[in-house]
Amino acid sequence: MIVKIPSLLSPDDLRDIRQKLAAATWQDGRATAGHQAVQVKQNQQLALDDPAANEIGKLIIARLGQAPLFIASALPKQVLPPRFNRYTGGGTYGNHIDNALFPLPDSSGYVRTDLSCTLFLNEPEDYDGGALVITDHAQDTRIKWAAGDMVVYPSTSLHRVEPVTRGERLASFFWVQSLIRNQAQRDILFTMDQAIQSLNQDVARTEAMGENQAIASLTGVYHNLMRSWVEN
Description:
five-stranded antiparallel beta sheet; 232 residues; globular; DNA Excision Repair, Uvrb, Chain A; 5 helices; nine-stranded antiparallel beta sheet; Jelly Rolls
């Protein structure tokens, strides 16, 4: 399931982030690519220990914690520190699937990549091309959203970034290990969560939510499913 998290970052957040990125030192993105990815990757990234990346990353993590839609869709157990890339002058990233594991920054272990996230940091009219194309069940979804919007999608998906032929494309990207490893189970829980939220809004217009037994029962089913499926 592909999920859009709209307006994760405010205009003030974005203005501050772009100022920091403009002053940052960028390096060849192939330095962090695997054996296969290095053959199709043409972009720039901030170093993992770059002070700007660390500062902006902490802001993004804080905003994620305040985003109910992200929490409901990802059910995050661990979120890797956000990384940052820039595409200019024909830069592109061909078809690839993200690595299954990434090391934690403190080298204490690994994070399994259940979900991939791309957070757009500048407006789509700032550049030509640069769409994120996600292939799922032989169908392509092209994503080129407003600054501050984020897409969450299964890390098992084949995906690419189309060449940027004008301007520059700025984004943050990172991975999530979910409490629910199985994608189908995670999708069921998210669909159920959104249905419960919608029913709560409808019931709130007519009666006290606490008196609605159907919603209480459905919420109980949600938590019992999670109890059965969650990984410690």
